[in-house]
Design a protein that fits this description.
This protein has two domains: 282 residues, Zn peptidases (Aminopeptidase, 3-Layer(aba) Sandwich); 110 residues, Alpha-Beta Plaits, CATH 3.30.70. It is 36% helix and 23% strand. The chain contains twelve helices and 17 strands. Strands 3, 4, 5, 6, 7, 8, 15, 16 and 17 form a nine-stranded mixed sheet that branches. The protein has a four-stranded antiparallel sheet with strand order 11-13-9-14, with helices on one face. Strands 1-2 form a two-stranded antiparallel ribbon. The longest helix is centred in the C-terminal third of the chain and has 21 residues. The two termini are 18 Å apart. The structure holds (2S)-amino(hydroxy)ethanoic acid and manganese (II) ion (MN) (2 copies).
C-alpha cells in the first residue's frame, strides 16, 4: 500500500481553496485573476512534488514526471462554476500531486511515471472541457472563438493572461497509457448507501442549447392581450412543454434542466420583445441523447409555427459524449478499495460530466469518487469529510501503483 501524507493533502486543498474563497465556497472562473494565481501556485506545488511543471498555451497546468514512460496522467480541473465548491475538480488535482509526490519519494516506486494536470475550463465558462480537449488534440477554431458571459473569447482571454503564443502541451501516445481522475461524487448515493468509495463505470453525456424567442416590445398597459407578441410568454410556454415532452422520451436516469434564462428589456411595464433560455440534458445513452435533440428541435419548430413569436435554437458548445470506463481500471480501483475498506465501496455511474469524458475515446480511463455531504455540489455548501478525502487518496494511490506495476 502507498503511504500518502494525509495532513499535507488536506493542507494543500485548504490553501487552494483560498484562491477565490467566497463564504464556504469558491468562485474561480477560468482565466480570472484568482484562476491564474491558483494555476501559478499549482506550478509551484507540482515542482515541489518533483515534477517538471508549467502552464501551457490553453491554460492547463501540466506536471511531467522525470521518469520515462509508460506514464499515467492524473488530473482534474482547477476552475469552478460561478458558485462553486472547494472540492469540485480541485480535489482530483491535489490527489494527482500527492500521489505523484508519494510514489517519487518511495524508492520502491520512485521509477513509476505519473504526470499530473489541472485542466482549464472544465466547467465551461468559455467552452466545456476546453483544456482536456486541447491536450488530446481536439482544440478547434470554435473553441478559441467561444466566449464567456461577458463576451470575451478564449483567444482574447489567453492574450489578456499572457498565454498567447505559448505552445499547448499534448498527449504523447508513446508515453501516456491511461488517464485516471478522482472526484467528489456530487450526488447523494455514496452517503445514502454508507459506501466510502465509488468506482465509476460510465459517465453521462451532456448537451446544451440556447432557445431564443423574438416578439414585439410594447406597452404592458395599452397593448391588448390579443395583439401581443410577448417573448416572455412564449418562453414560459416552451418551458411547460419542454418538461412534458422530455419526460415522454427520457430514460430512467435522464435529467433535463433550464438553468439560465433572460427577458429583454426586463421591465414590468414592458411586454418583452426578446427572451432566451439555456437548455441542458444528460443521459448515459447516445440513443436517448439523440431522442432529446430531436424532441427539442421539433418543439422549437412547433412553437415557431404556432406563433406569435419567432422561436429558434442554437446548439453551440460541443458538450460531452457518454463514455464507458476501462474495465481494467475499474477492476484495479475496485481491488484497491476492497483492500482499504472491504465491502464499503460500490461501482456506479457518474451523473456529472468530467474531463474523463474527453479522455475515454483516447486512453484507458477510470474515475474514483468519494462521498459528498448531503449530496450537494455546484453550491458553496459543497463539502466532504476529511477522513473520506484522505481515504480516497490512499485508494487512488494504491490503484495507480498497481496499474503501473501491472504493465
Ligand atoms: O456539470 C457537470 O457535470 C460538471 O461538473 N461540469
Ligand atoms: Mn463541476
Ligand atoms: Mn468537476
Amino acid at each position: 500500500m502507498v503511504e500518502i501524507d494525509g495532513p499535507r493533502l488536506l493542507r494543500s486543498l485548504r490553501e487552494l481553496r483560498t484562491f477565490g474563497a467566497t463564504g464556504s465556497g469558491v468562485v474561480r472562473p477560468t482565466f480570472s485573476d484568482v484562476d491564474m494565481t491558483a494555476r501559478r501556485w499549482l506550478v509551484a506545488q507540482m515542482s515541489e512534488a518533483g515534477l517538471e511543471a508549467s502552464i501551457d498555451g490553453i491554460g492547463n497546468v501540466i506536471g511531467r514526471s522525470p521518469n520515462p514512460g509508460p506514464a499515467v496522467v492524473l488530473g482534474s480541473h482547477s476552475d469552478t462554476q460561478p458558485e462553486g465548491g472547494w472540492l469540485d475538480g480541485a480535489m482530483g488535482v491535489m490527489y494527482g500531486i500527492e500521489v505523484a509526490r508519494s510514489l517519487l519519494a518511495d524508492p520502491a516506486t520512485a521509477q513509476l511515471a505519473v504526470d499530473v494536470a489541472a485542466w482549464a475550463d472544465e466547467e465551461g465558462t468559455y467552452a466545456s472541457a476546453l483544456g482536456s480537449h486541447s491536450f488530446v488534440g481536439e482544440l478547434t477554431d470554435a473553441s478559441l472563438a467561444a466566449t464567456n458571459a461577458d463576451g470575451e473569447s478564449v483567444a482574447s482571454a489567453l492574450n489578456r493572461v499572457g498565454l498567447a503564443g505559448v505552445d499547448p502541451i499534448c498527449l504523447e501516445p508513446d508515453r501516456h497509457v491511461a488517464y485516471l481522475e478522482a472526484h467528489i461524487e456530487q450526488g447523494p448515493h455514496l452517503e445514502a448507501s454508507g459506501n466510502r468509495i465509488g468506482v465509476v463505470t460510465g459517465i453521462v453525456g451532456i448537451s446544451g442549447a440556447t432557445v431564443r424567442f423574438r416578439g414585439e416590445q410594447n406597452h404592458a398597459g395599452t397593448t391588448p392581450m390579443s395583439m401581443r407578441k410577448d417573448a416572455a410568454a412564449s418562453l414560459f410556454e416552451f418551458g411547460v412543454r419542454f418538461r412534458s415532452r422530455f419526460a415522454a422520451v427520457a430514460g430512467p436516469a435522464s435529467v433535463w434542466t433550464i438553468g439560465n434564462l433572460g427577458v429583454h428589456p426586463g421591465a414590468e411595464s414592458i411586454v418583452a420583445g426578446e427572451a432566451w433560455c439555456r437548455v441542458q440534458y444528460r443521459d448515459a445513452s447516445v440513443q436517448v441523447m439523440d431522442r432529446f435533440a430531436d424532441t427539442l428541435t421539433a418543439l422549437v419548430a412547433e412553437l415557431d409555427d404556432e406563433g406569435p413569436c419567432r422561436v429558434t435554437v442554437e446548439t453551440g458548445d460541443r458538450g460531452m459524449v457518454p463514455v464507458t470506463m476501462d474495465p481494467a481500471i475499474v477492476a484495479v480501483l475496485g481491488s484497491a478499495a476492497e483492500r482499504r475498506v472491504p465491502g464499503a465501496w460500490v461501482e456506479m455511474p457518474s451523473g456529472a460530466g468530467h474531463d474523463a469524458n474527453t479522455f475515454a475515446p483516447h486512453l484507458p480511463t477510470g474515475m474514483l469518487f468519494i462521498p459528498s455531504i448531503g449530496g450537494v455540489s455546484h453550491d458553496f455548501a459543497e463539502d466532504s469529510h476529511d477522513d473520506d478525502i484522505v481515504l480516497g487518496c490512499c485508494v487512488f494511490a494504491d490503484a495507480v501503483e498497481a496499474y503501473l506495476t501491472s504493465l
